[in-house]
Design goal:
The structure holds two protein chains of two kinds. Chain A is mostly helical. Chain A has 17 helices and four strands. In chain A, helix 10 packs antiparallel against helix 12 and helix 10 packs across helix 16. The radius of gyration of chain A is 33 Å and the shape is elongated. Chain B is α/β, with parallel strands linked by helices. Chain B is built from eleven helices and 14 strands. The chains are: A mainly alpha, B alpha/beta. The interface between A and B is medium-sized, with 24 and 32 residues.
């Protein structure tokens, strides 16, 4: 026991006296966690980045003006009115997500095309090919605005009234025995009566609340959505905190880097003859390895606690779920990281080669854990595949215990997987050490 | 020196098809200093690793005080102090912290550990630098601290594996002073080296290993007795000597052999009697050869090794 404690103590002292490495281990995950947390919305989602688009309106028609106003009112869009060439140049440079061109006489032609009688006008969209997801979102919003604006104008606007008059005159000149022409004539006749009743209401100044509402009648979305934020506690007071996820991801990444250093430390000790000197003493290989693993796990726990302490105090992250669950996830991950370090030492031939391979493996594991980008952006097969990556579970576990505010039972899968990987890595490492 | 503390029996270790240690056997008596001599790659360090339980021999065994050494034989390991060839120190821990760590590995703690740290630091003259880190030490000081770490638990057998590698002459002397103190205290030592002058200075008994095999296992006196020559005479001549004159020198009484080099301007003469030196110089002068420089030396282990293997220890 004296030897075990002495070996652990030695590792802890060596960790603490290396001020530069200590600073790196503490500061880097906090800086990167803060950065990723900020760009993914931070504590308050109102700070989330808006989609920047340009609208080039070459049409003064009331429909086009309504579309432009509607787009400007969208809370997720930041709309700039720019000349066409400037807008295209900014999209090309990646400064804007896309540009929408509303051409001359768009409003007039869109109204005519509503009932299928006229040629459909084009809305040109210039977009950044790396922003295809944004393209789909903006097209959806654009469709909504165009449909609402065009139909509103056609049902009770002046241009709508003129269009109906003209179309009725045109229809009366054609053969009314044609079934389609007859039905369209009947429909437009009804629409004309509706427009006239709207006009009478306006002229009489009898602006009842329903009349006002009907004055802008047109096609509209036949539903509204009501968003409920699913976060810890009261959804009104406890908003999603993007820092919680980013700090989880970055702490996992840098603790794994620390574990790599611990493994490389064993390889260096071998090279320098220190390893044999330790084993020449009356302590077994198991004792030396366990001491190394425990010291690494203690350091990992310390780092994780410190990083989350900063996250809580500075970035208002809450351990809103089970505190024992959070502690269990931290401890089990620390043990997993320690056995990962042993695995690197067991299979690494030289410190240099082992570092390169293990850093690469760690970055892949962290990427697949969803620490850098949400895992829902992965293809489905990859989302399933990441379940075999231990870091995916620890990030999910930390999310569950922080902003999701779940109970101890939600931590148990993450804890179980971490402990299973701890045993798996540890047994393989021990087998390899003994064989070597 | 009453009984064998260490008994190495038929140790053999091979890597793939290459035997690095081949049927090595020797014993070390209590209080004896054994010099394990051999060129680089002879198998000395592999032998030491097997003695310390770091390597499992393919054949043979190591008995320490009658107990077999092995990987898990902690009771046997307590009796050994190893000074490895490499500097087995943590550069970022102070000298005292290093010693406390190694002491704890041998179950030392508390005031006993403090006391032993002070004692060994004093022995290697580093007590005043106890709080400093080895990264601030000279090579010689690190070597001394390396020795101190092996002495903490007061081992019965101290094994020093080339402890003066990369050390300046002054530090080497300081190390030897410490080792001579240990020797005078009756400590049992094994000293491996490829520097014969170091082994000559310390060893009571010498084992010479070459290509993994023991080629000599006796006292220094017995080794010298096996040598035909007792001294060497080295001569630098101003003019090249004729081969006929070299042949004449070789058959002079008291001359064992003559080797000519540097196009006949340098001679190495092995003498069976010191007294012939003067008559040999006179003979050369009468033959018309002027000597620019000459030196004599007593036969040493280098010559012994050369005689036994036909090559230099530093080859």
């Amino acid at each position: 026991m004296t030897a075990l404690i002495a070996l652990i103590r030695k590792d802890l002292i060596l960790f603490l006296v290396d001020r530069r490495a200590l600073l790196l281990n503490l500061v880097m995950p906090i800086l990167l966690g803060a950065f990723f947390g900020f760009v993914t919305g931070g504590k308050d989602t109102k700070d989330a980045a808006k989609i920047e688009i340009a609208v080039i309106s070459q049409d003064n028609h009331v429909i086009s003006q309504k579309i432009l106003k509607g787009l400007k009112d969208e809370p997720t869009l930041l709309v700039k009115e720019l000349p066409l060439e400037e807008a295209k140049a900014l999209v090309l440079k990646g400064k804007l997500n896309m540009a929408v061109l509303i051409p001359e006489r768009f409003g007039e032609h869109a109204g005519g095309a509503l009932f299928g009688g006229k040629e459909k006008p084009e809305l040109a969209i210039f977009y950044d090919p790396s922003q295809t997801a944004v393209l789909a979102m903006v097209k959806g919003m654009l469709t909504q605005q165009v449909m609402q604006s065009v139909s509103a104008e056609m049902f009770n606007g002046k241009s709508g009234s003129n269009f109906v008059d003209q179309t009725l005159q045109d229809l009366e000149k054609v053969d009314m025995s044609n079934k389609g022409a007859g039905e369209l004539h009947d429909f437009l006749g009804s629409l004309k009566k509706f427009q006239l009743s709207q006009q009478v209401g306006k002229d009489a100044g009898a602006a009842s609340s329903s009349a006002v509402a009907n004055a802008n009648a047109g096609l509209s979305m036949p539903f509204v959505t009501k968003e409920h934020v699913m976060t810890a506690g009261d959804p009104i007071t406890n908003k999603y905190n993007g820092y919680a996820h980013s700090f989880a991801g970055m702490s996992v990444q840098f603790i794994l880097f620390m574990a790599i250093d611990a493994g490389i430390g064993i390889l260096l000790a071998r090279r320098l003859g220190l390893w044999n000197r330790l084993l020449a003493a009356p302590v077994g290989l198991n004792t030396v390895l366990i001491a190394r693993a425990l010291s690494c796990a203690l350091i990992a726990c310390f780092l994780m606690c410190f990083i989350f302490l900063v996250a809580v105090l500075v970035f208002k992250v809450q351990i809103a779920g089970s505190l024992p669950g959070f502690i269990a996830v931290v401890i089990s991950f620390s043990l997993m990281a320690a056995s990962f370090g042993l695995l690197i030492a067991a299979f690494g031939k030289t410190p240099e080669a082992a570092r390169g391979i293990s850093v690469f493996a760690t970055l892949i594991m962290v990427m697949l854990s969803g620490a850098w980008m949400p895992s829902f952006m992965f293809p489905q097969w990859l989302q399933t595949a990441t379940l075999v990556v231990p870091t995916r579970w620890v990030v999910d576990g930390l999310d569950a215990m922080t902003w999701r505010g779940l109970g101890l039972d939600a931590a148990l899968p993450a804890v179980g997987v971490q402990l299973a990987f701890t045993v798996f890595f540890g047994v393989i490492a021990l087998w390899r050490f003994r064989r070597g | 020196m009453t009984s064998a503390l260490l008994d190495v029996q038929h140790l053999t270790k091979a890597y793939a098809a290459r035997k690095v240690v081949d049927n090595v056997s020797f014993s070390v008596m209590r209080g004896q200093t054994l010099g394990l001599l051999g060129p680089n790659g002879a198998g000395k360090s592999t032998t030491v690793s097997m003695i310390c339980g770091l390597l499992r021999p393919d054949q043979g065994k190591v008995l320490l005080d009658g107990q077999t050494m092995g990987a898990g034989k902690h009771a046997v390991k307590f009796k050994i102090g190893l000074v490895p060839q490499d500097l087995a120190l943590y550069e970022d821990l102070s000298a005292r912290e290093n010693l406390k760590l190694f002491g704890a590995l041998y179950a030392l703690s508390g005031s006993k550990l403090q006391q032993r740290c002070d004692a060994v630091l004093d022995l290697v003259n580093l007590l005043d630098r106890a709080g400093d880190k080895p990264s601030t030490f000279s090579g010689g000081m690190k070597r001394r601290l390396n020795i101190a770490a092996a002495l903490l638990h007061d081992p019965e057998l101290l094994i020093l594996d080339e402890p003066t590698v990369g050390v300046d002459p002054q530090s080497r002397n300081a190390i030897f002073d410490s080792l001579e103190v240990l020797k005078s205290q009756g400590r049992t030592l094994i000293y491996t080296s490829h520097y014969m002058e170091e082994v000559e200075r310390l060893a009571d008994h010498i084992v010479i290993i070459d290509h993994g095999k023991v080629i000599a296992n006796e006292t220094p006196a017995d080794l010298y007795r096996r040598m035909p020559a007792k001294a060497e005479l080295k001569l630098d001549l101003l003019t090249a000597i004729a081969e006929a004159d070299v042949a004449a020198l070789s058959v002079m009484p008291g001359v064992d052999s003559v080797h000519m080099s540097d196009h006949g301007k340098h001679l190495d003469v092995a003498l069976t009697e010191h007294e012939v030196t003067l008559s040999l110089l006179n003979w050369l002068a009468k033959a018309g050869y002027k000597t620019s420089h000459f030196a004599t030396a007593k036969t040493n282990l280098e010559a012994v090794f050369l005689t036994l293997t036909g090559r230099s220890l530093r080859d």
